[in-house]
Prior knowledge:
It is a single chain. Helix content is 40%, strand content 18%. By secondary structure, it is an alpha/beta fold. The strands form six sheets. The protein has a seven-stranded parallel beta sheet. The chain has a six-stranded parallel beta sheet with strand order 24-29-28-25-27-26, with helices on both faces. Strands 4, 5, 6, 7 and 8 form a five-stranded mixed beta sheet that branches. A hairpin with a 2-residue loop joins strand 11 (215-224) and strand 12. Helix 20 (573-590) runs antiparallel to helix 21 (597-616). The model is unreliable at 44-55, 272-278 and 777-786 (pLDDT under 50).
Amino acid sequence: HPVSSVGTVGDHGIYAFAFDPRLSLTLARTSAPLTEKQRTLLGDAQFGNGSSGSESAVVIPADDVEEFLSDYYPRLRRSIDVTSIDDSLSLPPVPPPVLVATVTFLPKQRLSIGWSWRYGTESKALRGADDRDVNDRDVAAEREILDRVERMLGPVSDSTLDGLDAADFAGRTLAELQAVDGVAVELVGDRPDYTELTGAPKLTFTTVPSDKRDWFDLGVYVAIDGRNVPFTTIIKALSKGAKKLLLIDDSYLSLEQPVFEQLKALIEEASALPEWETGLRISRYQASLWADFEDLADETVEATEWRDTARELLAIDTVEATEPPVALLATLRPYQRDGFDWLALLWKHRLGGVLADDMGLGKTLQALALMAHATEKMAPVERAPFLVVAPTSVVPNWVSEAARFTPTATVRSVATTRQSIEAVVKGVNGADGADIVVTSYALFRLDFESYQSINWAGLILDEAQFVKNPASKAHEAAVALRTPFKLAITGTPMENSLMDLWSLFSIVAPGLFPSARRFTEEYVRPVAAGAGQELIAKLRRRIRPLMMRRTKELVATELPEKQEQVLRIDLAPRHRALYDTFLQKERQKLLGLIEDLDRNRFIVFRSLTLLRLLSLDASLVDESYSDIPSAKLDALFEQLEDVVAEGHRALVFSQFTSFLRKTAARMEAAGIAYEYLDGSTLSRAEVIARFKDGDAPAFLISLKAGGFGLNLTEADYVFLLDPWWNPATETQAVDRTHRIGQTRSVNVYRLVASGTIEEKVMALRDRKAELFDAVLDDDAAFSSSLTVEDIRGLLES
């Protein structure tokens, strides 16, 4: 149809008319809405340029054909179909659109990416600005190309990348983008030589003595594909959770490698410093941690001093023997000789430790042997006294034991804050210096500044469980005292939880473990949640070089037999009914409170104590119940009758002095001679001496007052009137008599009221014993200290 006889019907149809041979009108619907350009070409004056010129042919001169076909024909072709009426002209295919990525390299490891479309020589925006622009583009082809790119990169838009993102794009993504059909990449500026390091990291560790006592500067060197990688840069990136790292030389590497994760864990344990820029350090006490570094490293270059120390500590089973001091008037048993050799090694390298032998194995003697050895080895100009800090009741024992085993040593004790510490140390006119000064924890805490002013050869903490609370002034003083050597002596290094261990090692081996908060996160909580044996083994490995612990099984041939028995006692009917009534009342009161144990701790433990007292004697709760007999006391005296009749002697322990006094009253009524000791006893030494030298068959002792500092091998029977969930406390009580020097078999009886909270306490005690054994003695699984679940279990029927 000639253009002159064609018009449009809106934007959706076309009509054509003719007069010859007759009038005819043809209507056709368009397959798509007509564009403005199409309507103009049809000469519709209403929408375009009118009909003027619409019938004129456009003639392309021969010289311009090439330009027409390359520049104008593609645009025309995208708007309408173009054909050759007589096939005399071969029309070229229209080139598809090309997505152009213009990558401009900027200073400081940055680059920008701009996106556009190229149609021949014409450039268009990434996305059409308006309908006129869209109608001049191949939208379907653009969408297909854009889909391919976005599957690889995600949504496409102009952007700027810096650092690792820029390196990763230039080093990896750029090549992938260039391979996509329909995409052209244009580079602007100087492209950096971004190189991905793919080789296996090679680690080298060094230690160099630092200006801070007991620490070595830790050097860590990482090499990959022959390039040195700054270690602090790696650690910073790891701490931020980065997956890759860009270096200043435009190389980059993946941090998702097992060696880097292991390295991060080790470094975090080696140093509690909050900022890596301040430098990395490893403590002299972390010999086992250094072994882990060696396992991880390709090469280690240790400082000579560190290497010697670590080698001897890690070879703890083959400690070189040390000749006992001449001044020691005692023959050390084989295990005591091993302990002395170990202590001498620690002293040689000025390393602290924990002597944690079972009760009664001669820890005091081993410590006295060390002090005598150190005194002999010190040059005259180096001579300085040792400071021994012990519970008040044990101070006289140290003085007497020192006089017995090291009589040539000058030993003095501090009895009051009114004494001048300097005068005690230097003696009369400063001419008679002390070799050992013994003081109490109370005096050490109250007069710490005076103790800090003295030059001490070393600090010995006896019954070191007294400083297990890191918030106490005594613990702070023990940490702060300036001395090159610190030794903790305790048969119960861990009474309640793993934090007891942390407290001791923070004094004697600063730097072995990180802060209390991190120790809780890394050990205490995971163990409480049931962490596997691997974490337990790691903890044991850390403490092993710096803790010496021998159990009584080691010296079983030198100790008499010990028989232990649980006597289960049924309450009298009235007592049982009363206990059950109180139990229901306290259970209902507490079950809603224990979820917030910290806030309600006092109320909870008051109720638990009430139930424990009621298990012993109803009159301990209220004197109005004094007519209800105590089945516990009845059972005790049934046993004591045979003990006394056969000429044996017994230690009777209770945690409650009120029950202990009722026991004493029954003793007097039964005509049984006894001695009595609790925390209020003023003449403690006299009472102990009377029992040791006298013939009273019974010694009533409160668990707190008599759990340490006593050697009572005169007795061969032990009665524990009330169980406690801390197994170490009970063990201490039993070991007052079952120790070196005892010649008779020791019989231990635990009196437990059936169907009461005491049975729950016994079960809890067994679980706590597993915690102690797992860390210090064997590989048993264990749980943590007293928890909400523990308390809930105590209240169950």
